[in-house]
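Practice record 12: protein with NDP.
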Amino acid sequence: MTQSFEIRGDLLIGSDSTGGNRTVRAINPATGANLEPAFAVASESDVAKACELAAQAFDVYRATSPEQRAAFLEKIADNIMEIGDILIERATEETGLPVARLQGERARTVGQLRLFAQVVRAGEWLDLRVDPALPERKPLPRPDLRLRQIPLGPVAVFGASNFPLAFSVAGGDTASALAAGCPVVVKGHLAHPGTGELVGRAIRAAVAQCGLPEGTFSLLTGANETGAALVRDPRIKAVGFTGSRGGGLALGAIAAARPEPIPVYAEMSSVNPVFLFPAALAARAEAIGTGFIDSLTLGAGQFCTNPGLLFAIESPDLDRFLQAASDALTGRAPAPMLTPGIHAAFDKGVAALVEHDAVKTVAHGAPAEGVNRSPGIFFETEAAEFLADERLGHEVFGAASLLVRCKDVDQMIAVAEKLEGQLTATLQIEAEDYATAAKLVPVLERKAGRILANGWPTGVEVSHAMVHGGPFPATSDSRTTSVGTLAIRRFLRPVSYQDLPEGLLPAELRNEGVRALPHLLDGVRKGS
Ligand SMILES: NC(=O)C1=CN([C@@H]2O[C@H](COP(=O)(O)OP(=O)(O)OC[C@H]3O[C@@H](n4cnc5c(N)ncnc54)[C@H](OP(=O)(O)O)[C@@H]3O)[C@@H](O)[C@H]2O)C=CC1
Ligand SMILES: O=C(O)CCC(=O)C(=O)O
């Protein structure tokens, strides 16, 4: 039977739909119009109720078999697809993003849930290890030691404004936390509350269809105080966040100040440097120029992987690149940005660069027609100026980028050394550049979570070998990723069982259970 999912403006607290205080409306950023209905704002007691239900659900949910948990993730994916066109229509209205982009993002979202279902079934994430007892060992016997990973507990997820599906209510943080066995309480983003509610209802339906405890999932709408109360709640054991540096740091401070501090996995701010090497510019300056502008203006530049900084060595080929990039940007019509606040922040960041004495505007897009939009813009400066003013390396969230002219490779490496942590670093190279690029790669490994060649950083593959992370301020914890299957590790911790009788061991660590799954036996890999 086909299910129907509606937007009512409710909070989804376990199986309960509540919404006393309906004061928030979504805005269509393309027109500035308010959208119906009004959404409920979660009170402190709503937050506490969602967390209590999540805590009650934890032991039951984490005890689900891999098959049950994988089937739940797949049911969420099926239900999201069942929402149908109204999901895409509402997301378009709330974000100003084009239909094709949102359809692609929906595919990424359900693909991500299905990938985590495969991960759960495969069992590598359990990281099973068995060191059998050595009773005869001298001078001391070794006990029987068995290790597995268990989930941390209820997780708070902050949906991102710029990916209303893939980084929001059922996005990567939620998918990886649920895959790990953690109940999830989402603080939805006010930029797309209707989209969030539809997806939240799809998850909640899957909870009921799979016979899971109601507290496995809740969705709260609200402002800063709702999110702060959620992170403070003692039942929450970890936080996933994508957004601004200020927001991530504020939530990290709240988490660190709790009587029991908890990890906050915040993906925050990145300018994603691109290094244009001489032979690459000589071979394909024009193609690099247009490729750059396509990546820069994708989604009105509202990607945390947006290429916001370029480095290149002075040459006539660099001038060819600049001409091609200028031609590609000039006349390009700006798309609406996600919220009036994000648009205002973009205009402020651009104004600071326009007014900067050491920065020259290279090109900009066509003038804006309509609200919440501004032309894309491309600046240049000299390496010495860049090194003298650290503000030039800060993120301007939107379609703005700065080219830094370098004298030679040594200067390019010197500026790279000064960069803050990044999600990505990109090399445009040809074979003749490899020897010089080899000097830069070790520097970039220290700076970024992903290093790529001859592509553009926007558009993150959801896969096993992806890292969407990096040193601060790209994220709050460079040891992990928010995209890809490795993201599950954020919500797990190891437990070692020493000499426990077989009957007290978890099923997967008993002799028969462990043989059926990949594991390390005395340090040697066994199983698939
Ligand atoms: N690196 C990236 O991937 C992204 C970066 N950004 C950056 O963030 C800016 C603003 O965009 P936005 O998406 O709203 O990001 P924010 O960081 O402002 O907000 C993200 C989420 O965190 C919450 N939040 C923020 N600060 C606090 C706080 N002090 N206490 C409790 N909750 C908090 C917000 O709640 P509430 O809505 O109630 O404020 C929202 O739910 C952009 O201009 C851009 O610079 C945005 C998107 C992605
Ligand atoms: O580029 C992508 O696909 C993902 C970008 C991202 O993580 C973000 O903008 O928050």
